[in-house]
Amino acid sequence: MGASQSARTEHEFQDLADRTGFSLEQIGNLNKRFRQLSKNEETLSRQDLASISALDNNPLRAQIINAFFDKRNLRQNEAGTVQVIGFEEFLMVMSHFRPAAMHITEEEREKLRREKLRFLFNMHDTDSDGTITLEEYRRAVEELLSKAGTIGQETAKAIADAAMLEVASTTRGKMEPDEFYEGITFENFLQILKTFDIETRMHVRFLNMDTATMRCGK
After folding, report:
1. Which CATH code is given to the segment(s) 100-202?
2. CATH 2.40.30.10 fits 1-99+203-217, yes or no
3. Confidence check: pLDDT of 149 > 70
4. How many angstroms separate the Cα of 34 from the Cα of each of 30, 57, 77, 81, 206?
5. Which residues form a coiled coil (predicted)?
6. Do the domains 1-99+203-217 and 100-202 sit in the same CATH topology, yes or no?
7. pLDDT for 62-96, tens place per residue?
8. Which of 11, 23, 90, 200 is the most buried (most CB within 10 A)?
9. % of residues, the chain, pLDDT over 90
10. Which is nearest to 153 in space by CA: 162, 143, 163?
């Protein structure tokens, strides 16, 4: 029985390795962390992630937690959220933080970059309509700045509005005074962050597992 269970687990892990790019050892370590967070249950809830003390002072705490339950990040090709996730879904989200393997083609590298930026975009497109609106952008900037404790909410709002105007001028060019800017599309987002080193900077440490050190080349 034990050997059969072990073989099945190894087969399941190999399938997940093929789909995510993680090694079997990394998947084993992530499975241990999942079990710790879920208290050995088969599913993980928002409350389980909210219990991570390292997230307490993170201004993006809510967005990070919600990202694990966003169907768009679970490769389900649909909008909406789920209430709990299993280990496979947990691994799918974690794979967005995986560094690029050392030996990949430029096409593969660009695909990985787009996937990471899409994940980041989804964190701020909270209503899943394909656009980061002024209100969504303002909320994100306010949370980042106001929680720092150095400026007030109104100042943060003014900075967010000015930043959105700058984004509009970058993506749309000069706008008329009465022209309304609907928001940032994913293509705009790619343009804005075209020089941003997302491949090496997008990793997490709040799970007590530094994904920046996860080398996944085979």
Report:
1. 1.10.238.10
2. no
3. no
4. 6, 22, 24, 19, 13
5. none
6. yes
7. 888 999 999 999 987 788 999 999 999 999 999 88
8. 90
9. 29
10. 143
Tell me the C-alpha distance between 54 and 41, whole Å. 22
Which two three-digit tokens encode residue 135?
């209100």
Neighbours of 152 (CB within 10 A): 12
Q: How far apart are CA 158 and CA 170, in angstroms?
A: 19
**Domain coordinates of the chain in residue numbers?**
1-99+203-217, 100-202
How many residues appear in the chain? 218
3-state secondary structure string, 70-115? EHHHHCCCCCCECCEECHHHHHHHHHHHCCCCCCCCHHHHHHHHHH
| Cβ partners under 8 Å of residue 119, min gap 6 | 67, 73, 96, 202
Q: Which comes out higher in pLDDT, residue 154 or 35? A: 35
- Name the token pair of 57: 């002072």
CA distance linking residue 155 with residue 110, whole number of Å? 37
Alpha carbon separation from 113 to 86, 147, 179, 201, 212 (Å, rounded): 26, 29, 32, 11, 15
